[in-house]
Amino acid sequence: MDNGMKAILRNSLVGGALVAQLLSGCMAETASSAVAKPADGKADAVSRLCADAGEPADCDICDVRSWYGDGECDEFCTSPDPDCGTAAPVCSYDIVSPLGDTSADLEALSGRARRVTFENIDSLTGTEIEQIIAAVTLEYTDVEGLTSEEIFAEADAGEFFLEPVTQGAVTYDWVRFYAGDTEVGTVFEDGTTRPVASVSDGDLRGCTAPDAPSPDGPTPAPTTESYICDYAPHPFADFSYDLEPGARATYARSDVADIPEVTAEQIFAAARHRDGVAADADLVAAFDISDDDEFDVLRLEVGGAQYDWVRWWAGDTEVGIIFDADAVSIVAEIGDQEVIGCRTTDR
Question: 294, 320 in Cβ contact below 8 A?
């Protein structure tokens, strides 16, 4: 309920018709993100949430529902949300795309596409609406003041195609559309509006998106530089069942305080690389991605060199990251038992 309603409220800043379409069936024009207090269609949505919470109609819904500093930028809040920063995503051919070079590479990884238009906007989740708006914003930069119907009209025939993309054990959301007969669109981290790649005339550009600030959040765990895993050369066997580990240690969530420092850094780096754990999260959050709240750390020796393999199961699928020994430099990742070589994004 919260996530869907927040999406509707956020989208009312860009297209007031979303609130009308999804809540009351009436058309409403956009409200400026600069107003300190909700107004017009946005106020209607906020007042309903306030009433549901037993609060006055003009309550600070972000305070009532603890949305300040929750990791999402909510511009509809009465007071400035600390999650809202000024940095915007950047997509460029100078940034390596983790999903190939063209949309044909995406199609090889994608599932069945779902066609959506303004006429069936009711079938969309709040996140899907946010992703469509984000994709249009990345393509056209400025959509402030447009209604939701006008946002859909930016695409040829007013249609978008939503497609799941799966690479190894990682899933992405691809919003594809055409503008002037040119294929464009954006690939997002699953369930978010953080872009990882952008399609421009069928070619893929890599994207970077800043992490939302969280000044009052937990002490950040260690982070590493960015890595791309795209079958770069590696010294290991092609499948994890052919690896021959030596020493092994298993760490559970309850062991966090006792995990050696470098091992803790490796576990967090593995979780962040594979599943997008927030940079400002604490180490405990990394254990959320493991089926049994545990990580195995195994020592490998190949060709006279030593490595550390952080292994866990996600959805009954074996995944993991192989680091240089006692370091957080990533050498390879494992997805469904396949070993894939990794490299830093600057080479």
Answer: no
CA separation, residue 135 to residues 128, 154, 295 (Å): 10, 11, 36
Nearest to 197 by CA among 71, 73, 90: 90
Residues contacting residue 69 through CB under 8 Å, at least 6 positions apart: 81, 82, 83, 214, 215, 216, 217
Cα separation of 59 and 79, whole Å? 11
pLDDT per residue over 146-187, tens digit each?
788 888 988 999 999 999 998 888 889 999 999 888 889 999
Contact 62, 81 (CB under 8 A): yes
Query: Which of 253, 263, 260 is CA-nearest to residue 288?
Result: 253
Nearest-Å Rg of the Cα atoms of the chain is 22
Q: List, for residues 174-231, the tens digit of each pLDDT value.
A: 999 998 888 899 999 988 888 999 998 888 888 876 554 433 333 334 444 567 777 7
| CA gap 9, 172 in Å, rounded | 24
Q: What is the dihedral of CA 219, 220, 222, 223, to 10 degrees?
A: 180
Report the distance separating Cα 177 and Cα 180, nearest Å.
10
Q: 45-50: long-range contacts at Cβ-Cβ below 8 A with a sequence spacing of 24 or more?
A: 45/5, 45/8, 45/9, 45/12, 45/19, 46/9, 46/76, 48/23, 49/5
78 vs 298: CA distance, rounded Å? 50
- What does pTM read for this prediction? 0.42
Residues whose CB is less than 8 angstroms from the CB of residue 257 and which lie 6 or more positions away in sequence, other chains included: none
